[in-house]
Amino acid sequence: MILQIVAVTAGLGLIIAGLGLALLRVLRRRSIGVMLAVVAVVTVTATLAGVVAITLEMVIDGRPKNIVLTVVAIGGLVGLGVALVNARRVVLASRRVVEALEKVSPSGRFSPPEGPLPAELQTISTALEQAYERLRLGRERERALESARRELVAWVSHDLRTPLAGMRAMAEALEDGVAGDPDTVKRYHTQIRLEVDRLSGMVDDLFELSRIHAGSLRLSRGRVGLGDLLADALAGVEPLARAKRVHLSGEADAAVPVNADAGELGRAVRNLVVNAIRHTPADGTVSVRAVADGGMASLSVLDCCGGIPEDDLPRVFDVAFRGEAARTPGPDGGAGLGLAIARGIVEAHEGEIGVVNEGPGCRFEIRLPLSP
Length: 372
Ligand SMILES: Nc1ncnc2c1ncn2[C@@H]1O[C@H](COP(=O)(O)OP(=O)(O)OP(=O)(O)O)[C@@H](O)[C@H]1O
Ligand SMILES: [Mg+2]
Prior knowledge:
Bound molecules: adenosine-5'-triphosphate, magnesium ion
Largest sheet: 5 strands, mixed
Distance between the termini: 82 Å
Helix content: 55-70%
Number of strands: 7
Structural class: alpha+beta
Shape: elongated
Number of helices: 8
Strand content: 5-15%
Strand order of the largest sheet: 2-4-5-7-6
Radius of gyration: 39 Å
């Protein structure tokens, strides 16, 4: 008897479940609300079918049969009602998420819909919020880079035009014989050579920077002692320091090995030291130190520049940043590329570069992983 009941209800249940699953497959692109309704209908139909089959066949007769059927039918209707209400809530919640999404302006923030959401929709909404935030930051960065690039082109062309105009005037004067006396001729020649040196330096810097930005800076790395690198850099800038009457002091730990491209890293160090000399008044001191510190190699350059304005500190490494508002290049004024190049080179070595105001001036520091 019991076995028969189980067999009949299970058989009917399986058939209806199969039909329900097939229907859900057909409807798999429809709203979650429709699917929930199908699930409710399947549950109710399976229960009803089992009960009906058994009451009709064998178990109950007469009034009790009607009572059982009515109870099951009402139970089923209540279940269906709750399923439909719930389905509607889910549909409304998802519509709220879509509406919030439609409200976002192309560059704006996604603000999640107000009120509680079902867990999955809440997850989607949080993920959307984060994705939009990342998108916004990326777009902002791109815009900043784009405007820096535009500025660089404008400034560089200005910086190229001024010395070129000067050289043209001098060359014309020499050509026409207007500059007659030997002193002037000599002065013009020297001046032209200096300008050519400066312009080639600038073109060289631009080339280096473009390689850094294009990611095509090829490092040929080897084990390099930071102390030796420092000594080479100091030897190279000695004449400049002497001309400016700036005292240079170098200090290095016995062995500070790093895995680096000596040429490129030397260039970064030289940029820092040249800056320090340029911004230190006569009789001031520039001290350079190379030490191993907490598992890192540290190279720092301390000058007597009197401090960089706090507002400028985060910007000194930007391309074409030169500090002063009036951008008329002085006799030894640069293009504002040196620190951007230094940062690019140091970052290509998985290192960090930074600056703080300290003592009589500021301290630029390069930190690199020590070579094992
Ligand atoms: N040691 C320093 N002391 C004070 N200010 C500095 C120092 N180094 C850099 N700065 C400031 O940061 C700016 C940017 O330096 P950066 O080396 O990038 O360019 P630059 O020296 O002006 O030109 P370039 O290096 O291309 O010849 C400088 O113009 C200066 O205002
Ligand atoms: Mg510089």
